[in-house]
Amino acid sequence: MMFDDLKVEWKNEVAQKKNNIRLAFSSEPLEREANKIDKLVKKQNIIEITTAIVFLPFILYFLLNSENSVQSIGYSIWIYVCLITPYKLVKARMIKVDKNNSMKSYLQVEKLKTIEQLNLLRTFVWWHIIPILLGLILISAGSTMDETGTLHISFSLKIYYVLCTLGAIGIYFYNKKMADNKFKPLLDKINQRLDEIQDTF
After folding, report:
1. By 3-state DSSP, what share of the chain in percent is helix, strand and coil, each rounded to 5?
2. So where are the chain's domains?
């Protein structure tokens, strides 16, 4: 009887090891895809953070030497963008991945990272592009203010505002496309793999 129990236990261990090998093998393409997207995100984050850090001293200088309150508000908004951008991008990357942990744990961390990137892409226009556009409008409009506090916005400046707005809309749809084509499919694959792992236990 004891021999039969040991035999059943041994068969279960062998089956479990086979399942683990199959899951690890099937997760390799997913890990390669996640790493590829992760490198793309790192590259974009470096560009965004570097740009914010480089421009911050110049914006502070222009703020201290602004001609009126309208321009001061515009430069203040730009300073907010320069500060919030590194914070949000670094915060989204704070999740650590332990390669030596289980496959399930690794996938759960990748899931959290992908969700964070999805949220960043979907809200990027609101916390980054729109404040930049608003600051640009205020700064350029403030430059047309006369001694009486009246703004003299020319027709060409209005056209410029329209073009900038169209650019912001374009960035919104670009980010939406990236979220739908890259991060959403990756998240679905991670969830599918987690379900497969869950079914084996």
Report:
1. 85, 0, 15
2. 33-200
